[in-house]
Amino acid sequence: MNSELIESGIKKIRWAMKYMDVLYTLKKELENKKPLKGARIAMSIHLEAKTANLALVLRDMGAEVISTGCNPLSTQDDVAQALSSMGIKVFAKRTHDEKEYFENLHQTLDQHPNLILDDGADLTTILHTQRTNQLKEIMGACEETTTGLKRMRSLEKSGKLSYPVIAVNDAQMKHLFDNRYGTGQSTWDAIMRNTNLLVAGKNVLVCGYGWCGRGIAMRAKGLGANVIISEVDPIKAIEAAMDGFKVMNSLEAVKIADIIITATGNKDVITEEHFKFMKNRVILANAGHFNVEIPFDLLEKLAKSKKEVRDNVVEYEMENNKKFYLLAEGRLVNLAAGDGHPVEIMDMSFSIQLLSLIYLWQNKGKLQNSVLKVPSEIDLKVAEVKLKTLGITIDRLSEDQIKYLNSF
Ligand code: NAD
Ligand code: SAH
């Protein structure tokens, strides 16, 4: 282990800790009871400072924790080493090699966890396809993101899901803030810090007007961009139009876009046809799952040459001599080329994770093998603690008002 890296990682972890008010309030309330005693939790989630804090709090709750990443490029090696120096088992490294990434996931599963924290469903997919003999050991999983839940729900539909999965992403205290404001801020943070370009006055195309797309579009507007939205859902398209954005077919929009950001969870949002029409010097970034929204393999195939022009920025020269700039190999730009969501956002998401993992552990053997909602008490608990830490008091319903609202 490298002591300079460890020191740098510890600083990052301590800085995040100072602002993770909800997580540390819950820790204070619950740690004496050791509600996760006996749990062995495998975490496959972007390994950076906020995640390290979650791992440490889970350990303080009595669990044994094994930590790996959920994207080849998002592990921060200094944080990984720092966490390991604090006694957590870590199998993670920033890598450009997918094979190495998957080897880390297998090493994590070699530790025989009984609870899973997945972000994107990679551990659950491996367990259900390549390591089925381990399925009976798993008491349940929590899933962090939209695409992970999509994958878990198709597993459920196929009748093969072998343990209960808590849909953390769908909790209100998660997606309303994390997907929207978290992705909104951190995507722009990553684009700006990696390109050092101006956003004001530029034409920005955001593909997808779901929770993430809305956040990215809202923040682009605040930075002074002319924002264009492309969608496949007619209702979301109308919503975008009424929120004041220009809505266009993506093939038309790419002709005028200076920056293109995908946030759909879908593949081939950008196709060969789109590449033909794009402007010279366009910036391409993805904020959704995997490197298939802006298809990395296709761009590699179509380009006549490529070179790295800044950290995390690769210039592709096309047959028509136009140059395109792809950030972070088309992987989630905010995590592969930044620090991910801001601390206070992950504080709320990880508080939902903590309480959901405790719920799974305390109800082991009693829950159905399906994708389950986060209990509303958990959402409310996290909201109440967050309000308190913000110093905000709100009005409360009187008995009489409750009666009135429930009457016909
Ligand atoms: P969502 O379901 O709310 O939104 C996705 C939107 O994309 C939908 O409105 C859908 O109609 C639209 N869409 C689908 N295919 C499209 C296409 N070809 N062109 C244009 N629009 C299309 O999902 P979300 O919560 O916004 O998540 C989006 C993706 O981002 C998921 O993969 C999710 O896992 C990921 N995510 C990333 C981060 C991050 O930190 N970067 C954070 C949260 C979620
Ligand atoms: N394996 C997928 C994961 C999708 S990531 C992939 O790499 O494509 C999307 C999730 O990352 C979001 O739901 C969000 O909650 C989480 N995330 C965002 N910033 C984070 C951070 N700083 N630390 C840990 N997780 C983060």
What do these coordinates show?
The chain is globular and about 65 Å long. Helix 2 (21-30) packs parallel to helix 16 (343-362) and helix 2 (21-30) packs across helix 17. It has an eight-stranded mixed beta sheet, covered by helices on one side. The protein is built from 18 helices and 15 strands. The protein has 408 residues and is α/β, with parallel strands linked by helices. The structure holds nicotinamide-adenine-dinucleotide (NAD) and S-adenosyl-L-homocysteine. S-adenosyl-L-homocysteine binds next to helix 3, helix 9 and helix 16.
Strand order of the largest sheet: 9-8-7-10-11-14-13-12
What compounds are bound to the protein? nicotinamide-adenine-dinucleotide, S-adenosyl-L-homocysteine
How much strand content do the residues show? 15-25%
**Spans of 5+ residues with little confidence (pLDDT < 50)?**
none
Strand tally is 15
How many helices? 18
User: Shape from CA axes?
Assistant: globular
Q: How would you sum up the major sheet?
A: 8 strands, mixed
- Output the structural class: alpha/beta
Helix content: 40-55%
Radius of gyration: 22 Å
Mean pLDDT: 98
Cα distance spanning the termini? 67 Å
Can you summarize this structure?
Helix content is about 45%, strand content about 15%. With about 400 residues, it is an alpha/beta fold.
Mind sketching the topology for me?
Elements: H1 3-18, H2 21-30, E1 40-44, H3 49-60, E2 64-68, H4 77-85, E3 89-90, H5 98-109, E4 115-118, H6 122-129, E5 140-143, H7 146-157, E6 165-167, H8 172-175, H9 178-195, E7 203-207, H10 211-222, E8 226-230, H11 234-242, E9 246-247, H12 250-253, E10 259-262, H13 272-277, E11 282-286, H14 296-302, E12 305-310, E13 313-317, E14 323-327, H15 333-336, H16 343-362, E15 371-372, H17 376-390, H18 399-405
Parallel strand pairs: 1-2, 1-4, 2-3, 4-5, 5-6, 6-15, 7-8, 7-10, 8-9, 10-11, 11-14
Antiparallel strand pairs: 12-13, 13-14
Helix pairs in contact: 1-3, 1-4, 2-16, 2-17, 3-16, 9-10, 16-17
The protein binds nicotinamide-adenine-dinucleotide and S-adenosyl-L-homocysteine (SAH).
